[in-house]
Amino acid sequence: MRRDRGRRQLALLLAPYVLGLVVLVLAPFAVTLALAFTEYDLIRPPVWTGTDNLTALADDPVFRTALVNSLLFGAVAVPLRMLVALGLALLLHRRTAAAGTARTAAVLPTAVPEIAYGLLWLWLLNPLYGPISQILRVGGENGLTAFGRTPPQWLTDPVDARAAIILMSLFTVGETFVILLAARRALPADVYELAALEDATAWDVLRRITLPLIAPVLGLLLIRDAIQSLQFSFVPALIVTDGGPPPYATTYVPLFAYRNAFEYLRYGYAAAATLLMLLLTVAAVALQWRLLRRYGRFHLR
Amino acid sequence: MTRSGLKLSGVSAAYRDTPVLHHLDLEVNQGELLVVLGPSGAGKSTLLRVVAGLQAATTGRVLIGGRDVTALRPGRRNVSMVFQSYALFPHLTALDNITFGLEVRDMPRKAARERAAAAAATVGCAHLLDRRPGQLSGGERQRVALARALVREPDLFLLDEPLSNLDLELRTETRGELKALHARLGVTTVHVTHDQTEALVLADRLAVLRDGRLEQLGTPDEIWRTPATVFVARFVGSPAMNLLPADGPLTPDGAPAARPPGHRIGFRPEAVRLGDVGTPAAVERVDVVGEDAYAYLRLAGDGPVITARVPSASRPFPGEPVRAAVRWADVHVFDGDGRRVTGA
């Protein structure tokens, strides 16, 4: 009796969430999944085409470029982002007045709306009057750097543009930073005092104590960041580099899907690209989960 | 002349802006086990942290084995510390915990493992080496922490309430082992505790600390028999020593006629004799602890209450009128400032 009542209560409490999940997430997902096997242009009814979209994607050089771009972006940006967040957390975990201000500053870029953040970088990266290029030109002549080289052409050179998108992503690590800060603070102080008594160097402390102790948290954050990295390239690529410079240097899978769906009206094709992105994410998560399991065995007291 | 194991001269320390230690002078002989005893907040742990270098002294100097280490960082002082929490690395096995200090000092892994195995055998945790702290009981963790402390053969051991997280039985057992271990290794040791039994049992000498000042330094016998202050007299001994005004309701047998007002007399519960002579008293309460019983006696109608230790077989009963007597030889006299009056 009591158990039945408890279950009913639980079901009732969960209902709004489950309803939202079904209507807003699962149903669109199912529709996308189904659309991936059709041809659909919003005007005529969808036509079932089987796996045509997937084979077409495999042969599409633009999609392949987008896929490589996305993987490359994730492979470079995710570790760098983690490094930045970890560095900041270890630098700023102590309770001092200056650290408080610095912590706020570290989180601030993450709080800026994405579009505004993109527009800001459009200005920062401007090759003529953008502050970054201006700084790089300090000490040089005729618009060259002090070493006699042309400053990076952030918006027109394919390699520099990819670097610019990665650079942009390095400052929005606020959430990761806050979680790592909390993880570092939760570590017992006496363990560090013991290390001091044993004359352990800062490198020993980092390698033998801090990193192993926060490894489970780092692992989870890596997974999360890897999932998100496939998505947070979208706004910068749309606003700052517009998917270019040619040939599609900063067209990532989300932008590819967006273009196909909303500009070329190839909904089925875009859905298939999205599906592949999802599979990619699942594979990345599975891989990292295995790594995490290996390093996450011990327990904190 | 005995060599100096540890010397503090004029050491002060503060926690944030609150002074914790006040110009402390203290010397521990080479190979001696000094127990620092005091209530919470007396500055015992701060004392250890200053010696270890984990906290800076605001004044004074710290010498270990005759070497001035005041300006040296903790790792250069060659001291080992066992923390109250043991501070074991949760992600490392017992073996890796023990070899940590050797490895960060670049000892080859094989040699470090051999040393660790020897240290573990010394404290009886050789069978636990491949376990992680999470898989060890409190007593086992304590052993691993001890092994880690002694594997480096330090000049000085610092033990911060190492027994306080153990249950009573294990504490008693480990106390004995600590004492035997110290006798065998002969390393200068500073052991901090708030447990007076532990202090009396373990100490070669005992330092009683109160509010960051040294109240008395002496052998356990001296501390017990000739407490220098009322504080020491009351803090060491359980139940605490009885304290009465010198010209008060109880006159010890053989006391001199002239006893200055403002002085206080103290006597331990075991010095009180119940019988046909002495001050009339009423038994308020009796606590029986096995063979012993502690009777709480209200003196002279509505006077102060004193404690008497009596054999439980011949204990009085609550409400019973008795007479309490104390011999002058068992009495400690303290002046108005709480200091012992010698020659009384």
Automatic annotation (TrEMBL), chain B:
Keywords, alphabetical: ATP-binding, Cell membrane, Membrane, Nucleotide-binding, Translocase, Transport
Indicate whether Nucleotide-binding appears among the record's keywords. yes
Looking at the record, the residues that make up the ABC transporter domain are 6-236
Q: Which PROSITE patterns match?
A: ABC_TRANSPORTER_1, ABC_TRANSPORTER_2
Transmembrane helix found in the keyword field: no
Q: Which GO terms describe its molecular function?
A: ATP binding
Q: Report what the protein is called.
A: ABC transporter ATP-binding protein
Q: Which organism is it from?
A: Actinoplanes sandaracinus
